[in-house]
Amino acid sequence: MPSLRIPTPLRTYTNGQSEVALGGRTVSEAMSDLVAQYPNLKQHIFNGQGSLRPFVNLFLGEENVKDLGGLDTPLEENDRMLLIPSIAGGSN
Amino acid sequence: MPLELSHSEILRYSRHLLIPEVGLSGQRKLKAASALIIGTGGLGSPVSLYLAAAGVGRIGLVDYDVVDFSNLQRQVIHATSGLGSLKVESARDRMLDINPDIRVDTYNEPFTSDNAVRIAQDYDILIDGTDNFATRYLTNDLCVLLGKPNVYGSIYRFDGQVSVFDARYGPCYRCLFPEPPPPGLVPSCAEGGVLGVLPGTIGTIQATEALKILLGIGEPLIGRLLLYNALDMSFDFVKLRKNPQCKVCGLDPEVTELIDYEEFCGVPGYDLEKGSVGGDWDITAEQLADKLEHGDQIRLLDVREPHELEISHLDGATVIPLGQLAARLSELDSAEEMVVLCKSGTRSARALELLVSAGFRKVKNLEGGINAWAEEIDPSLPIY
Fold it and tell me: What top-level class would CATH report for the domain A3-85?
């Protein structure tokens, strides 16, 4: 199954899971499975129109899915995705 | 024009001079180079220590804060003996103690659209060690507009990100994150916490990248983003590409001069940092204590995380962490008078917004949070 790596700021919404296995043959299907498993995550990743929010990026391997086929990008059995949100900490 | 090194400098930098990629010519380049470090906190500490030790000839420090007790867990350039002093001065003194042969210029002022060009224009490279989105977007846009490299680092709890944004040769921060999250959605380190050594790991990687760029050696992190997780001890790299639609470095940029970054980042009219909402929505610790003493029926709603309750809590408070509040509104009664609290008033202000938008009207935000209560009403509670 394809997997998705969850960064610490969003692990609050995945019961602390750092890596989740997702069903689906496309990125879009995998994301539907993700928000079905963890409904509280939805508002942090997607806007009302169902597209990724501008401060969250989804990578498949090393590539941003925006640079591939977007949410329609097909997934292979062993694909690994990364969710990358903007974080601001550094000074205080 | 590279400068000559004195005998004492040759001895000081001998371990650099032994590396063929640096050598005497590289060390002269560092002496002639300049770097501006935005923020003298968690990331700025290792960056400024190592750039000073490495002999970068002129280093600028921008910050307007003073050294606080809660900084010392990670801001290793500052010391207990420097509590209360200006961060830029505390850092400068330490850097010159390490290396009196360099020059350190301090800017004890907030970094804003009004002063950023004046401060930054004469530096070769900028290093982003800030703690908020407004200054990050400002630093990014400034570097794009001035054509300078921006060594970016950011941290939260156990996660770190590092990249080098140089729009002349690759993407910028806005290509990756076109817009910041709404205020309050992503907690700051002051609210969410950070492992003390994390900025050390990320800051030293930033310092490494800065030195490589100033020396002109190796492969800089341009077009790549490093993602570090300390819990898993994992380093992941992803590729970043220039976004042709980027509003500042794209083909048809909208942003051609510095803008109002507080407005862009939606920094609200009220002061989240001070933990107050403004208007009639705040209640001070003293006012709350009076009301409770008079026997007023008030529901206390604590929106902190469960592990924070071990540090301090108010008896009888209902606990619903902010992240669960939207889903658990049905547990609350909008007819009741309610006071929302957190550590210092930031998360409770966010909770208050959520409650008000859900139709709650008899709600107030405990200004300054449980820390203010500990300071003004109940000194038996610790401040954290």
Answer: alpha beta
Quick: pLDDT tens for B262-273: 889 886 544 445
Residue B129 and residue A90: Cβ atoms within 8 Å?
yes
Average pLDDT over residues A15-37: 94
pTM of the model: 0.86
pLDDT in tens, B6-21: 999 999 999 999 999 9
CA A58 to chain centre: 5
Length of chain A: 92
B293: helix, strand or coil: helix
- Sequence ranges of the domains in chain A: 3-85
Q: Is B197 on the interface with A (CB under 8 A)?
A: no
Using CB atoms, which residue from A44, A67, A86 is nearest to B241? Answer: A67
ipTM for the assembly: 0.91
| Beta carbons of B266 and B260 less than 8 angstroms apart | no
Q: Six-digit token pair at B15? A: 């371990």
Q: Distance from A9 to chain B by nearest Cα, in Å?
A: 7
**Chain A interface, best mutation among B185, B201, B267, B272, by max A CB count within 10 A:** B185
Q: Mean pLDDT across the stretch B142-158? A: 96
Domains defined for chain B, CATH in brackets: 33-264 (3.40.50.720), 282-376 (3.40.250.10)
> Quick one: average pLDDT of A49-54?
86
